[in-house]
Design brief:
The protein is an all-alpha fold. It has one domain: MetI-like (MetI-like fold), CATH 1.10.3720.10. 71% of the residues lie in helices and 0% in strands. The protein has 16 helices and no strands. The protein has helices at residues 14-26, 28-45, 47-50, 71-74, 90-126, 128-143, 146-161, 163-168, 170-180, 183-197, 201-208, 213-221, 226-249, 261-269, 278-304, 307-311. The relative contact order is 0.15. One of its GO terms (cellular component) is plasma membrane. This is ABC transporter permease. The chain crosses the membrane at residues 29-51, 100-128, 140-160, 166-186, 225-250, 270-298. InterPro entries: BP-dependent_transpt_permease (IPR050366), MetI-like (IPR000515), MetI-like_sf (IPR035906), OppC_N (IPR025966). It is found in: Cell membrane.
Length: 312
Amino acid sequence: MKYPKKDLIHPISGSRWNHIWSGFVGDKLAMLALIIFIFYVLVALLAPLVAPFDIADPAFMDLMNAEIAPSWISGDSQFLLGTDAQGRDLLSVILYGTRLSLTIGICAVLIQATLGICIGLVAGYLGGRIDNFLMRCADIQLSFSNMMVAIVFLAIFQSLFGVARYQQLAMVILILVIGLTEWPLFARTIRASVLAEKQKEYVDAARVMGISSKRIMFRHILPNTLSPILVIFTVQIANAIVAEAALSFLGLGMPATEPSLGSLISAGFAYMFAGSWWICVIPSVTLIILILAMNLLGDWLRDHLNPRAYKD
């Protein structure tokens, strides 16, 4: 007699999720961080609607309006946060820059997570030589500075294909470079979780029922290893945004025509001590608040998705 192959996912108790949610609602700092992050996401999505000016408009860049101070200093209500050295409304470019930085950060981490989860699942579940080979590849990757790898790759690309070609593909290249240099963190975390999960009874039952290894890995084991992945995902988005900002500050990031927060900080740094401090300071504060909010969310998730903390 053949029995139907039912899903054997090890359930996560509802009481644990209730504990997590009640802890989140009761943590004012975590709630504030979530509200700030949601605000940034909404502003990024609605940038074309809420920005005072359209950055694609040729008339947007007007040197006659260059380096106008914020409205609370200059009294000019047309430019709330002032203008940069090219006469662009700083509020508009910050809104679009936030959109670009979040897009690069999230897409890069999606690449990291996809590659790392697949490699970690295969290494942890199959073990043996495959596990050794994949983890040695991860060790080799971790032995290099991620920023160094990104700088070398981007510099070589600019030298081979020219600055003009690089500027056309800057966003895609940044996403790929940042995404392909951080996958070992996901892989090693998933592997450790899989090594613990594959010894449990529901995995043995799935094997006895003849369920394929692929289905066991992705349908049964993976959902039970998502807690640490959520924490890493949140923190890594912040790290990816910082990496993009650093590369842009070094001149290897987004071009001036497609401003990200990093390129805005880089462009404004030259005017920091020339009287036009707002060109650098305001984008810097915008970036710091975003990174701080995401790190606070990551720390909160790490503390409350930890089974030991729940048991206590």
